[in-house]
Design brief:
By secondary structure, this protein is mainly α. The protein has one domain. It is 79% helix and 0% strand. It contains 10 helices and no strands. Helix 2 packs parallel to helix 8 (174-196) and helix 6 packs antiparallel against helix 8 (174-196). The chain is elongated and about 80 Å long.
Length: 235
């Protein structure tokens, strides 16, 4: 009964994703854009925390956000390069290297151990991050968990365990869903941090200031009052 239900859910989700009309290439570039957006939000959060430190406010998490930004930006570029076929040579070189050093034949035990270990690390980081979801600063630990989800899933796919490859072939949309969940979660944490630092209020204030400045700059100057000395003296 459970297997029948699982197949039904799997089919429904697969049909729903296919029904969106999104090709694999479009899904890949959507993930690249999402990873890039998460990286840019991380850069923004790092700069905002640094400015907060300069004002004497809590901002010790600036380096953490800088590191998260670097991770997501590197992931976006790696995924873009893989989609364009620039990393095929690297895969072949690693496979040849493993065969030459007698690592390819006995790789299954290593694949199982590494895949399970990475999955456990990702789950632990996500659960640990959830414990700090309401903390003003240490909420970044949840963003680390989402980053670990994106990185860990990519590494597990790269390890290429047969069961993982079969699951990936049966549900090719799943990797895009997982990456979008990871980027959306990290982006949401970054936006929350930026809101707590008053970045959006500052943006609105700056926008209002520059708008007022442009109005004053382009408004016609007030006419100068001309007086006649003789009239003034008579008065």
């Amino acid at each position: 009964m459970a297997s029948v239900f699982g197949r039904a859910v799997h089919g429904a989700i697969g049909e729903g994703v296919q029904g969106c009309g999104m090709s694999e290439e479009a899904a890949r570039f959507l993930c690249v854009a999402a990873l890039l957006a998460a990286g840019l939000l991380g850069v923004w959060a790092a700069k905002a925390c640094h400015r907060a430190q300069e004002r004497g406010l809590p901002g010790a998490d600036a380096l953490v956000w800088a590191g998260l930004a670097a991770v997501f930006l590197l992931l976006s570029q790696a995924k873009l390069a893989r989609g364009l076929g620039w990393l095929k040579g690297l895969d072949e070189w690693l496979r040849t290297f493993a065969k030459q050093n007698d690592l390819y034949a006995n790789r299954r035990q290593f694949q199982i151990f590494a895949s399970v270990a990475i999955a456990l690390v990702v789950v632990v980081l996500l659960l640990y991050g959830l414990l700090w979801i309401w903390h003003y600063i240490k909420r970044y630990r949840l963003a680390i968990g989402f980053a670990a989800l994106a990185v860990g899933f990519g590494i597990i796919r790269f390890i290429s365990l047969h069961e993982v490859d079969a699951w990936n072939a049966s549900m090719p949309w799943a990797r895009s869903v997982i990456e979008l969940i990871a980027t959306a979660g990290a982006s949401a944490v970054a936006i929350t941090r930026l809101h707590g630092l008053g970045e959006f209020v500052r943006m609105r204030s700056n926008r209002a200031y520059y708008s007022k400045f442009r109005e004053l700059k382009h408004s016609p100057a007030a006419p100068e009052k001309k007086t006649v000395r003789g009239v003034e003296d008579a008065g």
